């Protein structure tokens, strides 16, 4: 059974259907890049998977548990699905360590000392073991995004969703964040990432999903998607 099973997912805002019948199975350890032009529904898709948005119809099953579109169940789901955004959304008045320890402490009720120990391990993992006491303003954008990754990892997610996590960074800082993601992928983390980093998608991802006008227009291994696109829409997108 796939870790994540998405069946006939639809989402409308008023009259506008922005996700049109999306089905996708994601196996454990898969690293999937989601590409497509602005407005094609990539963010809405990820947001429906972690319960930030309620789908209009269809169903999502994670680790054998069907996601029920109801607040209590969505809350539980959010704990198992990590999400990282373009904006880091760190608390400015808290150290990196406290930012990472906060989720386990407040959401999962883990004791302060244990949560901090765990935060240390996670910050080490993203290469920030020496900066645990720094506040966000004392860190570069790349470092702040790595703190945000550590924060997501501290909740021990089954799957990590990344929505253009390098898009707000200066070009010279993109590499350090992608290196962390690559490391997580090598460790077996299941990842779904919306990205414009085509080289990364080609080198690291097991599959690429091309979204167009609210549906999955093409999906396949990177070598197929990038070298033998089947539809004019994907050809045009890659040509840009
Ligand atoms: P992408 O991430 O691929 O750029 P989005 O998922 O953000 O696309 O948006 C898909 C479509 O849904 C767009 O047309 C967008 O304007 C619309 N949309 C997104 N969020 C909302 C919302 N909260 N209310 C109404 N329309 C929305
Ligand atoms: Mg988006």
Quick structural overview:
The chain has helices at 42-49, 71-80, 96-107, 112-125, 141-153, 171-186, 198-204, 222-227, 232-239, and strands spanning 4-13, 16-26, 31-35, 57-62, 65-66, 81-84, 159-163, 190-194, 207-212, 215-220. The chain has 240 residues and is of the alpha/beta class.
Key features of this structure:
alpha/beta; binds adenosine-5'-diphosphate; 240 residues; six-stranded mixed sheet; globular; binds magnesium ion
Topology:
Blueprint: E1 4-13, E2 16-26, E3 31-35, H1 42-49, E4 57-62, E5 65-66, H2 71-80, E6 81-84, H3 96-107, H4 112-125, H5 141-153, E7 159-163, H6 171-186, E8 190-194, H7 198-204, E9 207-212, E10 215-220, H8 222-227, H9 232-239
Parallel strand pairs: 3-8, 3-9, 6-7, 7-8
Antiparallel strand pairs: 1-2, 1-4, 4-5, 9-10
The structure holds adenosine-5'-diphosphate (ADP) and magnesium ion.
> What Rg, in angstroms, do the CA atoms define?
18 Å
Bound molecules: adenosine-5'-diphosphate, magnesium ion
Question: Biggest β-sheet, characterized?
Answer: 6 strands, mixed
Based on the structure, what is the oligomeric state of the protein chains?
single chain
Could you give the distance between the termini? 37 Å
Binned, the helix content reads 25-40%
Q: What is the number of strand segments?
A: 10
Judged by helices, strands and strand pairing, the structural class is: alpha/beta
The shape, in one word, is: globular
Q: Give the overall pLDDT as a whole number.
A: 95
Please work out how many helical segments DSSP would assign: 9
**Which strand-content bin applies to the residues?**
25-35%
Q: State the low-pLDDT regions, or none.
A: none
What order do the strands of the largest sheet run in, or round the barrel if closed? 6-7-8-3-9-10
What order do the SSEs take from the amino end to the carboxyl end, as H and E? EEEHEEHEHHHEHEHEEHH
């Amino acid at each position: 059974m796939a870790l994540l099973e998405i069946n006939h997912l639809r989402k409308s805002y008023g009259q506008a259907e922005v996700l049109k019948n999306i089905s996708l199975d994601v196996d454990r350890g898969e690293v999937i890049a989601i590409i497509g032009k602005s407005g094609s529904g990539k963010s809405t898709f990820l947001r429906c998977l972690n319960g930030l948005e309620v789908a209009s119809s269809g169903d999502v099953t994670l680790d054998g548990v069907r996601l029920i579109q109801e607040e209590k169940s969505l809350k539980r789901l959010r704990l198992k699905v990590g999400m990282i955004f373009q904006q880091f959304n760190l608390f400015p008045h808290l150290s990196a360590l406290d930012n990472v320890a906060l989720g386990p402490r407040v959401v999962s009720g883990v004791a302060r000392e244990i949560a901090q120990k765990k935060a240390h391990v996670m910050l080490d993992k993203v290469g920030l073991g020496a900066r645990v006491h720094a506040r966000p303003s004392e860190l570069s954008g790349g470092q702040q995004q790595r703190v945000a990754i550590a924060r997501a990892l501290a909740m021990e997610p089954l799957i990590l969703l990344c929505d253009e996590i390098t898009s707000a960074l200066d070009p010279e800082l993109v590499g350090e964040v992608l290196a962390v993601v690559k490391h997580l992928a090598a460790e077996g983390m299941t990842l779904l990432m919306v990205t414009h980093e085509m080289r990364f998608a080609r080198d690291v991802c097991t599959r690429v999903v091309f979204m167009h006008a609210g549906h999955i227009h093409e999906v396949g291994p990177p070598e197929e998607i990038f070298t033998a696109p089947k539809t004019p829409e994907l050809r045009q997108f890659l040509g840009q």
